[in-house]
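Chapter review. Work through the record for At1g61320/AtMIF1 LRR domain-containing protein before attempting the end-of-chapter questions.
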Amino acid sequence: MDEAMASLTKAITSFLATFRSEATIRRLQLKLYLVHSYSDVIGPIVSQAIDTGSVEDLDLAIVDEKEPDDCSDEDMIQQARTVDSFFSAYPSVLHCLTKLSLYNVCFAKWDLHHILFDCCKQLQHLSLFNCDAGGLSAWEIQAPDSKLRVLELNFCCLGKLGVLCLPKLERLCWDTWITPKRPLSFDVVPSLKELNLVCGATTDHQGFMLSEVLRDTTAIHSLILNFQGERIWIKPEGEQLCTAFNKLRKLSLHGIFVEFDLLWMIVLLEAAPSVEIFDIEIWEHPCIVDTEGRRQTFGERTNPSWKVAEFKSCKEWLLKEFQITGFSPMEQQMTLIRAVMQRASNLRTIVLNDYQPCDYCEEIGALPRCERLPPERVFPKGKGEQETTVEQLVRDMPDCNVQIIFEN
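Structure tokens for At1g61320/AtMIF1 LRR domain-containing protein:
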């Protein structure tokens, strides 16, 4: 860390101190550790460059050497003190920020909302990694004048996130939440187009109605739900989702445990007939051993209890492309593909991909995946295996015009 900061300090000092006043840096990206006296050297130079108009946009990441699991509450509070001191000493930095990334910060004693939305008037992209307001506090965002377009939360322990007003927000991603109930709600977000929710449900997670989260959204066109190989944390529903899914163009369901039945996905497609791309990713990682400790944390993996027959839309599906990553000719996957092909009259392409590589899985297996698993759990490699898979899929559909593509 010291070596990195010493090198960066020298470089940025030389660069900004000698930069010609008649030129302008359109976008300056800095990644800092606020340690020792380095910030006292870099801060004034960057601040002066901003004040003189030499820097238009600043992309700042204030990083920490500790992993989230290694951070105590006091560590996070101390990091917040350091960040606050830096911003207090160099307020010009806040005024020029268009992107900000913070790591391991607890804002329990600071007004997070004021710093991010009242002071950072140009902020468009905010990424928070292991940041919170202390004690699973809820965080409500009421910022009608904010220019924020992208909000990313990673391992942020919030009791709940309530986006009351962010009129420019286009994309929100939340990776891992702690709260057992509905983690998120929206009010005024007219520009929200992409929502990405990633979480492996622990035993405390009770699940929630997706329609309640999306109730006040009107423009979402891309929805990504990633369950990280654990239980499905959205509760069964159908028609209730039609309004929120009205403009949905791409639906992605990732981290689906390999042994789960998959027909429940048809309910989501029925509620979103305007979807043109349907993308699923099957989760199978031998590196995650199903020990008693894992079961105590995440519980048993149970098949989704959705009833497909309970809801059927009368609208024609616009689905054109169906993608599966982690494909194998298992009964669950073959049944889902046939069901989609029979229902989607506009379907033109099915893309079948092998599993994404995982170094940990490969390390624990002396043999390749294809030799460790039964044939029905392995991606069809050769031309003969792939032709057999296609024949099985179109056997009862002689007029099928769907192109089936295998991508290793």
